[in-house]
């Protein structure tokens, strides 16, 4: 189960992700992040309340970041929860994604 | 659309001779098993964590090679990790290469030729009938490696399968591959399945080296 909320603050669209980003939620996650990227030039995904992220969830984040790259939009993943950090570290996502300790605003 | 298994095997076909490049046979076997897992993941039949694998939906895909693995995984929950499944499938030595070649022939991409060398030795070749799919495949992989952007999911998966068994050598020159070594390593590390395939191949190489060293010592 995943919960997604969105707010705009200081020019950034903040997408807060709560719960489990697994195969069942991957489409919803990718679609929310892509939609944010299509509507805003700066998008930050807040992963502080993410309990679990599977390979399908990681692919969703990567493909949303790819869409941001194509639109030349800024995209950052912020405040990784401990379980998300473990997965991101293991897969070396910091080499390919912008990862921040705090929200940009 | 071709499956990743078919794409991996198509990449291994030498476009001039029609012969299969299997420079590291066991490595290629591991990579083909990895391709099956990726195909199941893309079909949303399985999902993976950092090591574990879960069957999400055991209903058949319509592809016999995928469905055989899917049914087996659904029936054997006692094997919980990707690595254990890769080893189990590797031990079984299904003819995944033969299955993918037959499928590529059926799609009109290549044909199967059998002949005899010196009237005795059986020789099999798979000349390309339509070179377009292989050229497109190589172009996609070259783009994924040469640029610093985020590639499509399928291209990340295929680079990560082709790299550990030497198949990227038919995509880019040795010098280009050397110059982009870090980029390739980065792409290979992104997916749990390819990390486990790479580890399995490294484990096999280490056991060969150990076996070689032991044999050399016994000859002294």
Low-confidence stretches of chain B: none
CATH fold-type name of chain A? Transcription Regulator spoIIAA
Low-confidence stretches of chain A: none
Please report which band the strand proportion of chain A falls in: under 5%, 5-15%, 15-25%, 25-35%, 35-45% or over 45%: 35-45%
* CATH fold-level assignment of chain B: yeast vps74-n-term truncation variant fold
Question: Count the strands of chain B?
Answer: 4
The strand order across the widest sheet of chain B is 1-2
What structural category do the secondary elements of chain A indicate? alpha/beta
Task: Give a concise summary.
By secondary structure, chain A is α/β, with parallel strands linked by helices. In chain A, 41% of the residues lie in helices and 36% in strands.
What tags apply to this protein structure?
heterodimer; A: 105 residues; alpha/beta; Transcription Regulator spoIIAA; five-stranded mixed β-sheet; globular; B: 220 residues; mainly alpha; yeast vps74-n-term truncation variant fold; two-stranded antiparallel ribbon; 4 strands
């Amino acid at each position: 189960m995943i919960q997604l909320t969105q707010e705009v603050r200081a020019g950034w669209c903040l997408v807060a992700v709560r719960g489990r980003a697994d195969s069942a939620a991957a489409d919803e996650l990718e679609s929310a992040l892509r939609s944010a990227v299509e509507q805003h030039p700066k998008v930050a995904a807040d992963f502080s309340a993410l309990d679990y992220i599977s390979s399908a969830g990681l692919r969703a984040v990567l493909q949303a970041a790819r869409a941001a790259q194509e639109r030349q939009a800024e995209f950052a993943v912020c405040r990784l929860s401990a379980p998300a950090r473990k997965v991101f570290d293991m897969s070396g996502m910091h080499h390919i994604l912008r990862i921040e300790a705090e929200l940009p605003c | 659309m071709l499956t990743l298994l078919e794409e991996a095997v198509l990449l291994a076909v030498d476009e001039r001779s029609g012969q299969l490049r299997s420079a590291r046979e066991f490595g290629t076997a591991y990579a083909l098993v990895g391709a099956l897992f990726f195909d199941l993941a893309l079909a949303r039949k399985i999902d993976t964590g950092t090591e574990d694998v879960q069957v999400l939906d055991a209903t058949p895909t319509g592809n016999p090679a995928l469905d055989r693995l899917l049914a087996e995984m659904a029936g054997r929950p006692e094997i919980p990790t990707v690595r254990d499944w890769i080893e189990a499938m590797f031990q079984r030595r299904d003819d995944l290469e033969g299955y993918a070649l037959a499928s590529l022939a059926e799609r009109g991409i290549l044909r199967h030729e059998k002949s005899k060398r010196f009237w005795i030795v059986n020789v099999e070749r798979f000349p390309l009938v339509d070179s377009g799919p292989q050229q497109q495949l190589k172009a996609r992989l070259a783009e994924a490696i040469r640029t610093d952007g985020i590639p499509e999911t399928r291209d990340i998966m295929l680079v990560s399968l082709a790299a550990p068994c030497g198949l990227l050598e038919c995509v880019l020159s040795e010098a280009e591959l050397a110059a982009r070594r870090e980029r390739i390593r980065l792409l290979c590390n992104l997916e749990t399945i390819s990390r486990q395939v790479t580890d399995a191949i490294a484990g096999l190489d280490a056991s060969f080296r150990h076996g070689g060293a032991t044999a050399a010592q016994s000859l002294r």
